[in-house]
Design goal:
By secondary structure, this protein is an alpha+beta fold. The chain has one domain: Nucleoside Triphosphate Pyrophosphohydrolase (Alpha-Beta Complex), CATH 3.90.79. About 25% of the residues lie in helices and about 25% in strands. It has 5 helices and 8 strands.
């Protein structure tokens, strides 16, 4: 989407998420304030926070999850990164997963019904990066569900991740507890 379409697309995604998906205690206060103030959330330089997208990639039976060992963060996470212009937010998340892991055959999970509705919006603190003269800040992460075949080979993007692996689904609760809790109500595709 072009930069001038980004604010309206984000407003639609966040509004739908709050109305259709979010738990009562999910206020998204900082994200909503930044949107109201007209912050360029599509730019990495925007502080105190900006948009990221990530992919929660599941095996078709929901028994496994694809994770990366993140170089900067130093822990296992779902693949994702700073928003890059795409026709839809889920395509930004898909691109990050494909780049970081080499996964092929990604499919948007049926839960999304082919729409750009985030499964989870997780605003969280991240450390700054000295090499970029970047202070600690917030990532407003739009998370999307995908499925892929865990038997296919992976190829980690070693500039950003130490490794990419399929792990047991229970690991999701360690780094994305809100998504893990919500996933319990989602059925594996038939």
């Amino acid at each position: 989407m072009p930069p001038d379409a980004f604010p309206a697309a984000l407003a639609t995604a966040v509004s739908r998420y709050r109305a259709e998906v979010a738990a009562p205690a999910e206020h998204l206060s900082l994200l909503l304030w930044q949107m109201h103030e007209g912050h360029r959330l599509d730019l990495r330089e925007t502080m105190p926070g900006h948009l990221t997208t990530s992919a929660i990639v599941l095996s078709p039976d929901h028994a496994k999850i694809l994770v990366i060992d993140h170089v900067t963060i130093g822990r296992w996470l779902q693949p994702g990164g700073h928003y890059e212009p795409s026709a839809f937010f889920y395509l930004s998340a898909q691109r990050e997963a494909e780049e970081e892991t080499g996964v092929t055959g990604l499919k948007l999970h049926p839960w999304h019904q082919g729409q750009d509705l985030p499964f989870t919006i997780d605003s969280h603190d991240v450390p700054g990066k000295r090499s970029r003269n970047e202070a600690p800040h917030v990532h407003h992460d739009l998370q999307y569900l995908f499925t892929a075949d865990p038997r296919l080979p992976l190829a980690a993007q070693l500039e950003e991740v130490h490794a990419a692996q399929w792990r047991e689904i229970e690991m999701l609760a360690e780094f994305a507890p809100k998504a893990a809790a919500r996933l319990k109500s989602v059925q594996a595709p038939a």
